[in-house]
Amino acid sequence: MQLDSINVLDRAHYLTLWSRFGPYERARLDRLVYRRRLLFEYWAHAACLVPTSMLPWWRRAMLDYRVRHTGWSDWLRRNARTLRQVRDAIARNGPMANADFEGRRAGGGAGWWNWKPVQHALHYLWMSGALAIHSRRHFHKRFDLLERAMPAAAAADAVTSDEFRRWHVERALHAMGAATLTDVAGYLTFPRFGPGGRRPALAAMRASGQVTEIEVEGSRVPWLALARDLPALARAARRPAPSQGTTLLSPFDSLLWYRDRVARLFGFDYRIQVYTPGPKRLHGYYTLPILHDGHLIGRVDAKAHRAEGRLEARGVHFEPWFAAGRTPPTERAAVDREAALAGLADALGSLATFVGASEVTIDRVTPGRLRPPLARALRGT
């Protein structure tokens, strides 16, 4: 689950779980991560929460980072002393955050901590497995020695680099069900693999029968699937509908990680708008895709006004095919628009409960003619 600091609505990892399960206690997730250590923070596609059961594979990533890092060589030569001082300070003092180093004297000697090198040192020590993220306060990371924060991690035997690559391919294919070669590379990106870094692993897995090629109707390129997932794909094909229910997705949801795949499968062009200059934004600042019965039917630009206890849908933008009552781009059957609007109203009500709002307001709806039925559905909710 990807982590992100933007809090206009809620943190990305909290939203990702809400979208699957509905309202829950955030403190329960925090306990699973920072007390019971069932998940831990590491760089997997981006800064993510990953299962501790996967430690042998991510331990290999940590060890490889020490010798195969990108862009660090010159910095490490110039800042070896800073690395030692940062690690020694944490060893002496226990968990520390970036801000704890401001104004401290380096190792008791002359001079003051230089903020930027310390920040880089903490990141490098975390990525290379010397440190772990012990906890967070107001979302600020607190670092501790890996062996203290996660004793099992330091003792874990790392898999080989080849095993790590095969595992990486297996994870991506299992998550997607079936995928093209570009999907495999784009879904769970990992910078140290480099271009084509997964190809030897894929070739070995195809030769062993773990991965098999399948045909996908309407596609001119080969698709791949895990042999063990073929029964699940066959069961999915027999279902009358691909999915049921309505929810809103975090912009950082794993379903959206590889935008080209989203466009190909759903006919849905999505970009995270928070990094786009205001005048160039098409749909608002923090836009949540609307997933209804397996279709992406639009997006909601949402904001939580915590002091007022209000969830504001600043903009609701429906896809043209949905607004016009046409069939989805990748399907043959139409979507029940009334049921979809009722589902969206329920999802907004659930999200309001989750973010502590007692009121939901809707501003602009595109197209405007869908605003009255959506407002009625929301009143019913």
Would you write up a description of this structure?
- With 381 residues, this protein is an alpha+beta fold.
- The chain contains 16 helices and twelve strands.
- The chain has a five-stranded mixed β-sheet. Strands 3-5-4 form a three-stranded antiparallel β-sheet. Strands 1-2 form a two-stranded antiparallel sheet.
- The protein is globular, with a radius of gyration of 23 Å.
- Mean pLDDT is 90; it is low at 104-113.
Strand element count: 12
User: Which shape, going by the Cα principal axes?
Assistant: globular
The largest sheet has its strands arranged as 8-9-10-11-12
SS element count, helices: 16
Mean pLDDT level = 90
Share of residues in strands: 15-25%
Rg measurement, Å? 23 Å
Sheet bearing the most strands, described?
Answer: 5 strands, mixed
- The helix/strand series, from N terminus to C terminus, equals HHEEHHHEHEEHHHHHEEHEHEEEHHEH
What structural class should be given to the helix and strand makeup? alpha+beta
